[in-house]
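USER:
Try writing one entry.

ASSISTANT:
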Amino acid sequence: MLYTFSFLIAGAALTMSAPTASAQGRYSAALRTILTRTASGTCPADMMQAKLLKACRQQIAKSGPPLASKGTIKALNFIKTTHTFGRTEFYKVFFTKGNPEIWQIGGLERGKFAELYTDDE
């Protein structure tokens, strides 16, 4: 399933940066909350910057049910951090149903995220 609400970086070209060695990420709890709330049909306005929230609301009918069908999150395994446009963290997310997915979350500013993305199906 392709979740397209996401990875919003206004006006910036995407480039790759070297991963930062880190034992664990900072955003796992936020990622779990955002995915859980999105699966239940709610875009968490208190956690998303305006452009990400707008994209989420436009796509929630399409992205929420497939995410919900995966069941609850069993585990999030931190993979890496990049610093291309601020801090972005990558996680392997394990659900009770289906295959694990790689998710990225970042762009944290004033307590809200600008980036949330997966291209896993």
